[in-house]
Amino acid sequence: MSPNALIPSHRKPRRSASSRALRAGVTGGFLTLAVTGATVPANAAEKPVSETQEMPTITAALATSAAKSADAAQQAAYNYERQALQDATEAKADEAAGKAKAAAEKKAKAEAEAKKAAEEARQEKEAAQARASRSETRSALSAVSDSSSSSSSSHATGSAASLVSFLKSQLGKAYVLGSSGPSSYDCSGLTQAAFSQIGIDLPRVSQSQSTTGTQVGLGNLQVGDILYWGSAGSAYHVAVYVGNGNFIGAQNPSTGIVERPLSYDMPTGAVRVL
């Protein structure tokens, strides 16, 4: 037997060492670790954990967060595009409204100018008609005056002269409504009293006197013609034409019985009873 047979060996026995390697994997959204055993030599040096540990894998929560961020970015882009379209539409609508307003204002201005022009034309027409009417009145008065001057000697005799004489004798007397003389008269009372002096019986009121006899034009008056104001049959005032473009009548309470030219108050018409 060898003298060293009973001496324990100082050599370290060979042993199996299990080294653990971490394997990381994502299964169903969870981090799983697989531990495997490997037989390595006993004298193999173990590496530091920092050299063998793998980087952690992105978890499901991180993935969900990233997806939400992407959705938010996409929604923001969509909102921006929609707002841009809305702004463009509103801008076009504002532009169209502005054009419509300008067109309406232009049309209103044109209508106002046309209305103004029409009104001016109407006023000018009325002014021309008024001038023509005044011219006709002056012509009628001139014709009356000429006619009276040329025929005064023949017409101012007899009954007409007596009529005029009576009327002139009443000048200055008072006007009293409903009175027929001898100290005061109203308009129809005076004419009735005057014509009664030459044997002509007239109705009492001016309405009836305006239809007695024959209607004559104001351009063809003769001494003794009855003048009336208002329409025939509804006259509100009467007087008597005395020649030379004048008439005598009981005018009103403030003037009494006076002699006035036709231009003082142009009558509407006349009737002839002589």
Description:
The chain has about 270 residues and is of the alpha+beta class. It is about 45% helix and about 20% strand. It folds into three domains: about 15-55, no CATH class; about 75-150; about 155-270, endopeptidase fold (from Nostoc punctiforme) (Alpha-Beta Complex), CATH 3.90.1720.10. It has five helices and ten strands, in the order E-E-H-H-H-E-E-H-H-E-E-E-E-E-E. It has a six-stranded antiparallel sheet with strand order 5-10-6-7-8-9. Helix 3 crosses helix 4 (about 185-195). The radius of gyration is 65 Å and the shape is rod-shaped.
Topology:
Elements (H helix, E strand, L loop, with lengths): L16 E11 L2 E11 L8 H4 L7 H96 L3 H11 L4 E2 L8 E2 L1 H10 L9 H4 L4 E3 L9 E4 L7 E7 L2 E7 L3 E6 L7 E4 L2
Parallel strand pairs: 3-4
Antiparallel strand pairs: 1-2, 5-10, 6-7, 6-10, 7-8, 8-9
Helix pairs in contact: 3-4
Characteristics:
274 residues; rod-shaped; alpha+beta; 21% strand; endopeptidase fold (from Nostoc punctiforme)
How would you sum up this structure in a few lines?
This protein has 274 residues and is α+β, with helices and mostly antiparallel strands. Helices cover 46% and strands 21% of the residues.
What's the average pLDDT? 78
Please describe the biggest sheet, giving its number of strands, its sense, and whether it closes into a barrel.
Answer: 6 strands, antiparallel
What is the element string, with H for helices and E for strands?
EEHHHEEHHEEEEEE
Continuous helix count: 5
Q: What structural class do the secondary elements suggest? A: alpha+beta
